[in-house]
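Researcher: Can you fold this with EPU in place?
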Amino acid sequence: MEKLLIKGGNSLKGKISCSGAKNAALPMIASTILCDEKVTLRNLPYLQDITTMFELLGSMGAEILLDENMDFTISSANLKDIEARYELVKTMRASILVLGPLIAKYGKAKIALPGGCAIGTRPVNFHLDALKKMGAKIKLKNGYIEATAKKLHGAEIRFDGITVTGTENLMMAASLAEGTSKLTNVAKEPEIIDLADMLNSMGAKIKGAGSDEIIIEGVNNLKGTVYDIPADRIEAGTYLVAAAVTKGDITVDGINPERLMTVINKLENTGAKLSYDKKSISISMKKSIPEPVDITTAPFPEFPTDMQAQFSVINAISNGTSNIYETVFENRFMHILELNRMGCDIEVKGNHAKINGVENIYGAEVMATDLRASASLILAGLCAKGETVVDRIYHIDRGYERIEEKLNYLGADIVRLPS
Ligand code: EPU
């Protein structure tokens, strides 16, 4: 297994560009199932999760072409094998995003039930309950979701809990249903707005994405489109934190700051200076020791759970005590044990981490357990004294494009060690 060797202590300086957003791209690729024509996606990030989504569509019979501009054209018309097998679903839970499109377009779907994962149990009951309200018949058999529907019909659906991929699945399904659907208690993440924009560019009739209520008027078919994947707000946030923990001074290009306001505000509270325009964010950390910041994760527009692990590192080297409450996933503190092995002083009880800032942390051999946990270990390695080796970095390759290349460009010293 490949590892990253990080020599800590370099201050990051310079400018990098943000890659396309993984969590916007995954539902967009799934949405091509709804359409009989070709869809071209530009600015797709080169990530393992994207490859897995392509493998999944390819296994069902989709044609995927890459042209000389690195744009992907996907033709998902006439899929033959309407099944998402366990081998693929177990490596990526977002595979569940093909459920809504398959049942809406083909009237059937067989999808392996995603199990638990490193960050929690992550059930899909909200997706299934909502699809049932639109007329889908759903059975769970031999570890698979088997869904059928003659024709989905519009429905009023209030989600029992806020779910990002659940909201996306239902927006896609309702786009080809008969009649109008009203979705409430929905996720309001920017990626929901992106998907609605893309579906509307294909001829869907979706209003209200990004608000508490989404209205979708079903249409008979969707046409092809060419769509640019927007920048990854979590990637941008992660690099801003990398600058904050290394007393750095960087600009992340291509990102709309409105998607990251809670993160920007918290970074300002650590003592960093931030400035931004419509398409870039700059950070300069002049303070020798960051101030601690309390954080409670919650659905957008609150503080994103996908930035919680990274902020654990700023707090760990801050000049005081802070509290982090993780309210979205029940088990997203796996990075803490590894951070403590590097000299951090963090105590976890349930969904609460109490972090006592320490003056120095030290390099160690550590193990990545999930995507954002891996990011936090790299950030810790950047500000630790000595060398850190992060093992199991396949987790990081799922969600960060060329991470060591981008960080080295900013002045870090990271080497990928072969397996
Ligand atoms: N939940 C249920 N039942 C459901 C669906 C969700 O109980 O049917 C619970 C989950 O267990 C969790 C909470 O609701 O406790 C929120 O889960 P959600 O469904 O919103 O998460 P998701 O859609 O599976 C997406 C992102 C995650 C991100 C979360 C929260 C994608 C592909 N994934 O997951 O991204 O953490 O929303 O914002 O969009 C990551 O990129 O590292 C990542 C994990």
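Model: Folded with EPU in place. Residues 23, 26, 93-94, 120, 122-127, 161, 163-166, 187, 305-306, 328-329, 371-372, 399 surround EPU (CB under 6 Å).
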